[in-house]
Amino acid sequence: MTDMPDTTLTGDPSHDAPADHGDDAAGYYTPGDPIRDTKAPEGPIDERWQTRKFEARLVNPANRRKLDIIIVGTGLAGASAAATLGEAGYNVKSFCYQDSPRRAHSIAAQGGINAAKNYKEDGDSAHRLFYDTVKGGDYRSRESNVYRLAEVSTNIIDQCVAQGVPFAREYGGLLDNRSFGGVQVSRTFYARGQTGQQLLIGAYQAMERQVAAGTVEQFTRHEMLELIVVDGKARGIIARDMVTGEIQTHLADVVVLASGGYGNVFFLSTNAMGSNVTAAWRAHRKGAYMANPCYTQIHPTCIPVTGSHQSKLTLMSESLRNDGRIWVPKKKSDCEKDPREIPEEDRDYYLERIYPSFGNLVPRDIASRAAKNVCDEGRGVGPEVDGVRRGVYLDFSSAIERLGRDGIEEKYDNLFDMYARITGENPYETPMRIYPAVHYVMGGLWVDYDLQSTIPGLFVTGEANFSDHGANRLGASALMQGLADGYFVLPHTIRDYLADGPFEKIQESHPAVVEARQAVEERVTHFLSTNGTRSVDSYHRELGNIMWEYCGMERTEDGLKKAIDLIRTLKDDFWRNVKVLGTADSLNQSLEKAGRVADFMELGELMCIDALNRRESCGGHFRGESQTEDGEALRHDDQFAYVAAWEFAGDGELPVLHKEDLVYTAIEMKQRSYK
Amino acid sequence: MKVTLKIWRQPDAASKGAMHTYELDGVSSDMSFLEMLDVLNEDLIAKGEDPVAFDSDCREGICGMCGLMINGQAHGPEVTTTCQLHMRSFKDGDEIVIEPWRSDAFPVIKDLVVDRSAFDRIIQAGGYISVNTGSAPEAHSVPVPRDDAIRAFNVATCIGCGACVAACPNGSASLFMGAKITHLGELPQGQPERDTRVVGMVAQHDAEGFGGCTNIGECTAACPKEIPLDVISRLNWDLHAALRHGR
Amino acid sequence: MRDARASRSTITLKLLMAASGLLFILFVLLHMYGNLKAFSGHDAYNEYAEHLRTLGEPMLPFEGFLWIQRTTLVVALVVHVYAAATLWRRARGARTQRYVMKKNLASSFSSRWMRWGGLTILLFLIWHLVQFSFGKVNVAGGETNDPYNLLVDTFETWWMTLIYLAAMFALGMHLHHGTWSAAQTLGLTNNVRARRNAKSLGWILAVVIAGGFSLVPICVLAGVITK
């Protein structure tokens, strides 16, 4: 398998010598000891998982029902883990803030799920999927984890098919595959544009089966508000019943966070309204390191903002860029005109101009950044929101001429319908308007090979952890990772930890439990008694604007420092001046949001510090100071080939940076080029 | 534009609710319906009044969390979810009546928020294929005729929003159940549990207090995913088969 | 639900409803056909009425077939009404808090009127049996032991014809939705085409049966059928 040259990284001579600059983030953090994953076995990369599975201790079936597992989140990673651990006979408690586990935001994933089945016999293999994923992540992911992901990907498909997931099939009745996100093999399994939905329903049904069997107890409309750590180990959570307002203590032997990503720190994103960082952030404050929080994926083809009322952004499949041409007017004075009246010579097909060989198909981050640049120049189109037109045209007129309207309908009809429904414009007649939006975060809580965080007994799966996608995620890989973690990885690694259990029973009167509970109650009381003048949403919106402006597609030292100041001021004001009405003992959506926004503020600051520290451009992270003469992202492997794992040092204290060096034995680091 | 909103307000499950009237100005036709309610809530908060509670999450029409009765129609005048309904479907000066789903099996929690956990319990009663993780055979070992796979997919797009129940004069959840029965029943993997699945799910449906189906078709007209009535026929057929098999 | 039984479900009630409904469809179809004998005149009609009593002889005793048929129909009626009443009660219990505003989008008037329409037909049925089978009531005051003359006397009274026409309208409506609904409940409409066919069949049966029944009273009133 390992036919790739074994090269340990020592810095890439092709790079420009690192610019002589100081530590950008000096004064914003405290340097800490290096951190290392101690769980991945040594040896050839394709044998590590087998070895780990064998070495991880077993739990006697008779003991399993005495072991309590809390799982927070019911998306692909959470529901699949709940189902699998329930089947194994553990006592699982599953929490979600939605009214049903089936509504977790994994459901919105459109494109597909990768798996190295090689059904097309086009040269795919676990090794190639591994290679593509590491390369796609711009060499900022941990190779052992990624290899394992590629390896178990095939089991996921078998499992889902057996559960009745209706994947697309060919006439012969076998599964269909397509190529996705620019890779050269067809390894993406899909269920029309609703793959996430179908996979989640499969996992949800498997979990409901365990609810019926009595191994899983589900707590819907419950929000985790604090982690309980006793003697250095995660032993439970404090949750709020969102209907009655009751603050509940749930104790367990182990806690799993599968609580998703934190893209909503930007206020506007493609995430669900309720997606939040609270579970992860509370764990971070209790000792779990947060890794690479600045790695954000921004998706270029979303429907633009129409006004200050906008609550969320809707993604449209990237496949639209296969046939649509992206342009803006050359002259600012044309921006208000009907696009059909702007003659060809007055249009700037900027991607085709700047990147002649890839044109409209440049990677997500490049397309996104270019769109922001032209809009910042004042050449954006569509409605003016806060003084700027944020939109570029995605024009299908030449494709319609070439393929005919029928041809376009066949390929994109559902997307065109969706666009028309949301915007009220007919994309067959006028060009679509698109703009980038925050879509996914690669950063998350730091975990080792076992998916265990720096708090023993706290495991983190899915988008909530950091491990597999590096600085950028490939299309159709998020679903793969969520299910790999939940079905096939965590159930094996968690047993090694649980083999020491059941742990000593703790009482609700234990000081650590009482402290956690009080902290939650105090926060609730604070929000309800502040009686300020501004709504929670207005703070969230402002935080989002700061993040988008300074920690969005392009980040600079000055901008990030400014953002940190702005966030600190905003946070201060928030705690003194927020207005939350209603009571604690009923459904109170403002109160729920207040807690989430409070945590987003702290996270936002850390994201900026992380981005400030990483004076290089990699994947979804673009530092203005680190680009080639042509404006291309420039990595600095000699300085930044590490995972930045941040430790919370206390309120008002500087975060502590622990570096995990990334060592590649099965792949060689290369700089990308799309010219 | 300006609209008059008549909204059901109910502080909690135990209290009695009533319709309240609100005037809202400055509504843009580009707003989604829920964004319009967000704006109303910001106004209410500014005035020190309790904002209107309503459910929504993905706001892109797929999670099934949102669902309001708008002017007597589940999810409003378009065939889509409430979150995908836009204010351009209304005119300046319109009066809009907003109520929660009405079903005794979906008790109101607050204002426009209802408890749909009955749907989870129906799924728990058999809406799955029993296959433990790791015990699945190789995916290509069982080919599935393409048309069957397509039909299974089409009905598996149900988002569990509850509009079918809300629209049904009998308060029946037959369309929801039929969609799951048909999805799993179309596939070879779903055959072994076909009888127990339908019997379990229907028994749970009845125990939850949903009404019986009278095949009148309001559900399918309200369904944002356009699940067809055929699935109820399939549900009935499967129940017969279970009866014949002595279940 | 571990103790779940298919036989105790609402769908089983509906199956019973569909099965009994199909018996009624068969019955009204034959009944309507028999009524058209009125166009053949007094003797042919009365002979047909008499023949019904001797049908199946000598295997069956006098009126044997009629009693078998009556028993079957009474059982079917009890089942049909019981199932309807139970489901009606369930439906009322499923939504105790009504909507302030509710629009009907897809349902036909006939489908929404099944219960009240059914009740109308039931009341009519009682009157009809009193008038023609058990009680033999001649509203015109004439003889009651001659079926043909009783028929003509009845429908020469304009308001009797009106009552019967109204009842036939109710029956037509009931058949229109009932036929399709039975097909759906029996699980025979598992695709678009079958669904369309079942709906068409509903229309056809409604028009043929209600229309066929209505011809006789109309023609009596119009003077086409006379003593």
UniProtKB/TrEMBL annotation, chain B:
Domain 4Fe-4S ferredoxin-type residue range list: 149-178
Gene3D superfamilies documented for this protein: 3.10.20.30, Alpha-helical ferredoxin
Molecular-function GO term, any one: 2 iron, 2 sulfur cluster binding
Keywords linked to the UniProt accession: 2Fe-2S, 3Fe-4S, 4Fe-4S, Iron, Iron-sulfur, Metal-binding, Oxidoreductase, Tricarboxylic acid cycle
Stored Pfam families: Fer2_3 (PF13085), Fer4_8 (PF13183)
Cofactor: [3Fe-4S] cluster; [4Fe-4S] cluster; [2Fe-2S] cluster
Its EC number(s): 1.3.5.1
InterPro entries referenced in this protein's UniProt entry, alphabetically: 2Fe-2S_ferredoxin-like_sf, 2Fe2S_fd_BS, 4Fe4S_Fe-S-bd, 4Fe4S_Fe_S_CS, Beta-grasp_dom_sf, Helical_ferredxn, SDH/FRD_Iron-Sulfur, Succ_DH/fum_Rdtase_Fe-S
Origin: domain of life: Bacteria
GO biological process: respiratory electron transport chain; tricarboxylic acid cycle
Keyword Iron-sulfur tagged: yes
Presence of the UniProt keyword 4Fe-4S in the record: yes
UniProt enzyme class: oxidoreductase
Family assignment from sequence similarity: Belongs to the succinate dehydrogenase/fumarate reductase iron-sulfur protein family.
Protein name per UniProt: succinate dehydrogenase
Lineage, top ranks: Bacteria, Bacillati, Actinomycetota, Actinomycetes, Propionibacteriales
